[in-house]
Structures are given as structure tokens and as C-alpha cells.
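Deliverable D4.2, example record:
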Amino acid sequence: MNHETTLTRQFSVQLSPTRRGARLARLLTVEQLRSWGLAFDAAAQVVAELAANAVVHGRVPGRDFRLTLLVAGDVLRIEVTDTRGERMPVVREPSDGEAGRGLLLVEAFADRWGVTPGPAPRKTVWAELTGL
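Output generated by the structure prediction step:
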């Protein structure tokens, strides 16, 4: 996200690292973007995948994950922060099974995505969607 662009909206919530927490992240995203008058379908898919990854691969018992939505201009930045900084996400090629395709979906919906390490023990996986 261009740091020179003025941040116009922000939403952040801490959630339990469970399937229920991941589902709540998606539902809260839909409701927040709806309240801002923004399209939410692609963002809901991205949040669902990033939150699921935080729950499955980034979970540490007793430590929550954080969802943050930032809007600046026509860019929505989605950030999911977990406490397994040593486990970086890996894009897997499609296989016969359904598992392992989350980041391929993020790549398909997002204009850009990446990982920001730290501060220890955290990492933040982010995605940006433009053209709101």
C-alpha cells in the first residue's frame, strides 16, 4: 500500500485461532465492508483463506490471530497476523485434493500479496485488492 495515500478507513479485531474464529473473520469482513459501501465478495474469499491458514498453520495454543482491514483510496489491504513467524506460507500447486489451494485463491483474487515477518514471534500475511 502506498504510504503517501491517506488512510480513510481501518478495522481490526483479535480472534481465537479456531475454525469458528476463521469463520467470524470472514463474516466480520463482509459486514464491515458492507457498512463502508464497498464490494466484499473477493475480500471475503481472501480473508477466509488467510484466516484458515492462520488457524491451521499459524496456531499457537493460547495465542489469537489478528485481522486488519485498511482502506486507502481505491485499495483494500487485508492483513492477518499470527504468532508462528517461523512458518512462512507456501503456494502449492493444485492437486487432486481440495486442501492446499488457499494461497492460489489469494493470488487469483488479490492484485498483490505477501508476508511481512515480525516482530517476533509474529508474521503478517497481507493482500491488496484495488478498484473498490
